[in-house]
# Entry
Amino acid sequence: MSLHRLLLVEDDADMAAMLAAYLQRQGLHVTLADSRAGALAALKSGRVDLILLDVSLGEDDGVALCAEIRAAQDVPIIMVSALSADHQRMAGYEVGADDYIAKPFNPDLLLARIRAVLRRAGRAPSLIHRRRDSVLRFGGWRYDARRDEVTAPGGWQVTLSARETALLRVFLANPLIPLTREEIAAALDDDEAAEGRAIDMLVGRLRQKTDAALIRTERGLGYVLAAEVTRKDD
# Structure
């Protein structure tokens, strides 16, 4: 199984360390940020499956940050607050929060809420890797999402079929994370492809047109994009 990636935005260092340690023991990958700037930088640097966002962030406003993130991405957001007032809860929902939990809380309850939100969201990656105005770079290669153009390290363009391009986007949305054939087929919206060797053949064609070393076989599981992915917005 691959790890879900959580971004914990919390300016209380002790609280952040405690929550991160607990969630990582439960099999989640946690990235920490203590400000608006840190949160936005983390979102640009890689895939995020869910954000735990504290309402109070020193000089920053968590509700305003939630609205800012939601305007650009559909990554699930759970708001966390020391206050349980209904008006604050509604403010979070109105700007796009998926759930809300008040401090103090039972960590097991928080974990249950996280898992529930992740189940609703499925494995859909955050929009940083799906926006149509982005250029993604990986292992010396370049993918222009707006034009659906793939450029090799030497500067020449590589022509992919629509199916191969869709597969590449799945890998770009999940860098360094092993994906089963079933997960790949679900991301391609073709569950039948998981049966037989359809996914294997599609991966093979993509390898032939790009770089076989980029897509590594994970024995007994599936495949993984063996490269970091960075984004540049046009």
About this structure: Confidence is low (pLDDT under 50) at residues 123-131. The CA atoms of residues 45 and 230 lie 6 Å apart. The chain is about 40% helix and 25% strand. The first helix runs from residue 13 to 25.
